[in-house]
């Protein structure tokens, strides 16, 4: 949500490039060495995770970064910690729990910063981590700044960024999908975290989830007339269908004979093509809809595989081989070879359905999948379409889709997400909260805007607002008892988490106050002006439909945002009890 006076910059994808700077006047100034009678040469991953968490806690308590952190009673300065943290992030991403060699890194000679903050994808912060470490290996001091497409980030900001990334890993045993840049932090001279840090049990380090892929970005142009809806299927639609097939098999111990996607019935052979293609695309970051193929049944299927687990590398290779075979032969393969033996197409369908079901829940592909041979097809009916995803409109720069319906109640509620692409973290958290909720009083539909390229804030905001105003506003009718448009901010308003009625109508305001009362103190009421209400929420309210706008502070880890959104979704259900 954009105020008239405040611009908030967050990107769907930000690529960082370190400033190498041609002149460093202070390169040979004060040297920092580790302070310990028995100085160590390396630190374990557990030691570094503990130090990162201590720095994060100190910073959030004091609004400043400590000058020193104690690691096993060794006083480590912040430039040296930055080296340890970026090295550790790189190791974690590569599946390594190796110790990191201590390096005597000096401070940045002339640190500077010019950024308004924002959210980095996993790809972006991993790229930053590698570049920062490489720079320090080559120059023996912290970089003055790292450059983004919207400004520069000082080494102090990098310290807090990577301390939160590693703290998240320590708690969740996986790297976060996003990390928020919070600029303007300074080191508090003479300060330190407490000595004698308690030992941390090192987490079990799995084969790491992949780098969150960047979307494949088509050229950004002015809004044209939308293309007609085609029979292509989005990744979200295929993921939802995979979840339905998995649930059907888990209940019936057989696969359904057909699958329904976006109200279109397809065969299992066609579904296998979509599953393998979607798995490949999500691994490479390709987000464009997939065109179904007319795939026939394999002429002579066979199988000799034993049950067992294959790695992510193995199932991605399997997906590529199956897809290539079907592209060339127009029928499913009789079998596909794995390290466990040969697998029939039914076994492949169940395996890839579980892979995409995992992706739909966790937003990354699993590290491995268990091959379960002997899968059979039910001769009965297809699985019910519990949730249907329908593309409303497609353009060259994005699309709009409707996901319906969640909940068993009779009170229809619509939630709009994705209008401002740079607020992605809040939108993802809200969608996940809705999927996880048990809604007994409402039937909830999601109207989602997806803009392919969110790097240019103003352009992508205009595109998102245009898509919503043209293709969501006309579809929301009087059958809905409440509409909520979800946005994010970085804490620059008088309240950080709040709700309001953009139209300032009595009924809309009443709903906002009811949600406040049911939110356990999470949100308050704060009216602000912005660019989207005149195009989206106010026109909906003018049709006589109660409409509110929710703003949540995105400067938190995704797990915290998810809990906030769960509170809001529970409040939504509660006010219709």
Question: Would you give an account of this structure?
Answer:
This protein has 577 residues and is of the alpha+beta class. Strands 17-18-20-19-21-24-22-23 form an eight-stranded mixed β-sheet. It contains 13 helices and 24 strands. 35% of the residues lie in helices and 20% in strands. The two termini are 30 Å apart.
Radius of gyration: 25 Å
CATH superfamily of the largest domain: Zn peptidases
Indicate the low-confidence ranges by residue numbers: 2-38, 195-230, 380-385
Distance between the termini: 30 Å
Average pLDDT taken over every residue: 81
Count of individual helical segments: 13
Q: Could you give the order of strands across the largest sheet?
A: 17-18-20-19-21-24-22-23
User: Which architecture of the largest domain does the CATH hierarchy give at level 2?
Assistant: 3-Layer(aba) Sandwich
Structural class: alpha+beta
> What does the main sheet amount to?
8 strands, mixed
Secondary structure blueprint with pairings:
Blueprint: E1 17-18, E2 42-43, H1 45-62, E3 65-71, E4 74-77, H2 78-93, E5 100-101, E6 118-121, H3 122-139, E7 145-148, E8 151-154, H4 155-172, E9 178-181, E10 187-192, H5 235-252, E11 258-261, E12 264-267, H6 268-284, E13 308-311, H7 312-329, E14 336-338, E15 341-343, H8 345-362, E16 368-371, E17 388-394, E18 398-406, E19 411-417, H9 424-436, E20 442-451, H10 457-471, E21 482-489, E22 498-500, H11 506-517, E23 524-525, H12 537-541, E24 547-553, H13 558-574
Parallel strand pairs: 3-10, 19-20, 19-21, 21-24, 22-23
Antiparallel strand pairs: 1-7, 2-5, 3-4, 6-9, 7-8, 11-12, 13-16, 14-15, 17-18, 18-20, 22-24
């Amino acid at each position: 949500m954009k105020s008239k006076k405040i611009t908030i910059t967050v990107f769907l994808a930000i690529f960082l490039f370190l400033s190498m700077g041609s002149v460093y006047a202070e390169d040979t100034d004060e040297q920092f060495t580790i302070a310990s009678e028995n100085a160590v040469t390396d630190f374990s991953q557990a030691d570094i995770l503990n130090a990162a968490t201590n720095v994060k806690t100190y910073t959030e308590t004091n609004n400043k970064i400590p000058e020193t952190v104690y690691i096993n009673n060794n006083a480590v300065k912040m430039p040296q910690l930055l080296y340890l943290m970026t090295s550790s992030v790189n190791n974690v991403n590569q599946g390594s729990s190796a110790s990191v060699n201590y390096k005597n890194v000096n401070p940045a000679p002339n640190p500077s910063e010019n950024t308004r903050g924002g959210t980095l994808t996993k790809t972006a912060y991993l790229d930053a981590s590698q570049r920062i470490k490489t720079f320090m290996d080559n120059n023996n001091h912290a970089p003055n700044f790292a450059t983004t497409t919207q400004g520069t980030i000082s080494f102090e900001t990098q310290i807090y960024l990577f301390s939160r990334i590693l703290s998240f890993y320590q708690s969740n045993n996986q790297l976060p999908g996003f990390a928020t840049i919070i600029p303007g932090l300074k080191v508090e001279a003479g300060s330190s975290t407490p000595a004698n840090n308690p030992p941390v049990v090192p987490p079990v380090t799995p084969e790491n989830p992949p780098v969150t892929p960047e979307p494949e970005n088509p050229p950004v142009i002015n809004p044209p007339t939308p293309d007609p809806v085609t029979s292509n299927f989005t990744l979200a639609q295929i993921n939802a269908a995979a979840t339905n097939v998995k649930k059907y098999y888990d209940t019936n111990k057989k696969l359904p004979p057909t699958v329904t996607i976006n109200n279109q019935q397809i065969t299992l052979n066609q579904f296998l093509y979509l599953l393998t293609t979607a798995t490949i695309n999500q691994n490479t970051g390709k987000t464009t809809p997939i065109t179904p193929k007319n795939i026939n049944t394999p002429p002579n299927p066979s199988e000799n595989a034993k049950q067992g687990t294959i790695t992510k590398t193995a199932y991605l290779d399997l997906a590529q081989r199956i897809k290539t075979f079907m592209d060339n032969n127009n029928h499913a393969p009789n079998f596909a070879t794995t390290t466990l033996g040969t697998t029939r197409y039914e076994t492949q369908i169940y395996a890839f359905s579980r892979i995409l079901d995992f992706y739909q829940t966790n937003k990354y592909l699993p590290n491995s999948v268990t091959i379960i041979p002997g899968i059979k097809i039910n001769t009965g009916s297809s699985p019910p379409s519990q949730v249907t995803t329908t593309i409303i409109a497609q353009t060259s720069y994005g699309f709009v889709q409707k996901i319906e319906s969640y909940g068993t109640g009779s009170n229809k509620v619509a939630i709009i997400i994705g209008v401002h692409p740079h607020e992605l973290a809040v939108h993802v958290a809200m969608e996940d909260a809705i999927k996880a909720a048990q809604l007994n009083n409402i039937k909830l539909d999601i109207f989602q805007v997806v803009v392919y390229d969110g790097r240019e804030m103003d352009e992508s905001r205009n595109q998102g607002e245009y898509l919503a105003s043209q293709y969501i506003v006309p579809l929301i009718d009087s059958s809905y008892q409440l509409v909520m448009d979800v946005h994010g901010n970085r804490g620059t308003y008088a309240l950080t988490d709040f709700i309001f009625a953009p139209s300032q109508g009595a009924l809309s305001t009443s709903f906002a106050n009811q949600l406040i009362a049911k939110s356990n103190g999470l949100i308050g009421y704060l009216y602000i002006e912005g660019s989207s209400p005149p195009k989206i929420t106010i026109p909906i309210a003018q049709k006589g439909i109660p409409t509110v706008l929710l703003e949540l502070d995105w400067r938190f880890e995704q797990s915290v945002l998810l809990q906030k959104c769960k509170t809001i979704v529970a409040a939504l259900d509660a006010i219709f009890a």
